[in-house]
Write a structure and sequence with these properties.
Blueprint: E1 26-27, H1 48-56, H2 65-77, H3 83-92, H4 97-103, E2 105-106, H5 108-126
Parallel strand pairs: 1-2
Length: 132
């Protein structure tokens, strides 16, 4: 006997509405208010465009004060950090795809794509080879 598992239900169809536990995805808001990051300062060594994009990213809706402090620290030390250290800090703050996966955060688009992939997999499982 083979054991098959079904994909998890979308959050709105779940009976248990407790907060997500480790391993469950957190869907980020699609439209949000401007995150409370400090204003851009000329002493920052990253570009203004990058800083503004960072502020508007749905990921920043999950930031706490310590995350904001880490983002400011990264911005102020950008030019002095080795590339590997820059990349590591980006990942830790959830600013790379790998970082978002590790934190189990996903944008509305990523959530939609995952739901569609699950539905497609369900359809494929229903198909069977008939006869020779």
């Amino acid at each position: 006997m083979t054991h098959t598992t079904s994909a998890p239900k979308p959050p709105e169809q779940r009976r248990n509405r407790t907060q997500p536990h480790l391993g469950e995805w957190v869907d980020l808001p699609g439209k949000l208010e401007a995150p409370v990051l400090p204003p851009y300062k000329r002493s920052f060594t990253i570009s203004r465009a990058f800083w503004e994009a960072w502020r508007k990213d749905p990921i920043t809706s999950q930031y706490r004060e310590t995350d904001i402090a880490a983002a400011v620290d990264l911005a102020t030390q950008w030019a002095t950090l080795a590339h590997a250290e820059q990349r590591l800090r980006w990942t830790q703050l959830g600013l790379t795809p790998a970082g978002r996966r590790a934190l189990r955060w996903r944008t509305q688009l990523e959530a939609k794509e995952q739901r569609e992939a699950v539905e497609k997999a369900k359809q494929i499982r229903k198909l069977r080879v008939v006869g020779d």
